[in-house]
Specification:
CATH topology of the largest domain: Lipocalin
Structural class: alpha+beta
Distance between the termini: 66 Å
Number of helices: 1
Number of domains: 2
CATH architecture of the largest domain: Beta Barrel
Number of strands: 4
CATH class of the largest domain: Mainly Beta
Largest sheet: 4 strands, antiparallel
């Protein structure tokens, strides 16, 4: 009986240690990645924008990216964003930032304008901010894509 109690306590200790390590790893799972970018595009019912940027993470990794945004809706105009920024959440490896994000946007601007958007791709989210210039007005939905620059 004493041996069973000792074995049970030992197994419980190992299980608790494993759970503690798993929680500690999960807390450090977010790499703290940021995106700096520039983007320019047009819209007339269909919208299209292209640009480039760099994703940099707190662990020192970085990757240059190409950006494309495609959508459709009630929209018209032309715009450009310079010095845009983005913050990723729930990133475990830098490759998690690559891919297609769902996008929805309402925008209006003349000459100087600003934008803020929250995009999602599975568990990864990307909050974008930027200021730019151009003339645009509308509401659209679409896709925002990040792929590695060659």
């Amino acid at each position: 009986m004493k041996t069973t109690l000792v074995v049970t306590l030992a197994l419980a200790s190992v299980a608790l240690l494993g759970a503690h390590r798993a929680m500690a790893q999960d807390e450090h799972a977010d790499l703290g990645c940021k995106l700096s970018f520039s983007l320019s595009g047009w819209s007339a019912v269909i919208s299209s924008a292209e640009g480039k940027g760099v994703v940099t993470c707190k662990n020192g990794t970085s990757i240059p990216v190409l950006i494309s945004a495609k959508g459709a809706g009630l929209t018209a105009g032309r715009s450009q964003v310079d010095h845009g920024t983005g913050t990723f959440t729930h990133v475990r490896t830098i490759d998690d930032v690559l891919g297609h994000y769902a996008q929805g946007e309402a925008h209006a601007g003349a000459l100087k304008s600003g934008t803020a958007q929250l995009l999602t791709k599975g568990t990864v989210s990307l909050a974008l901010e930027g200021t730019g210039r151009g003339i645009d007005l509308g509401v659209d939905v679409g896709e925002f894509t990040l792929k590695p620059a060659k």
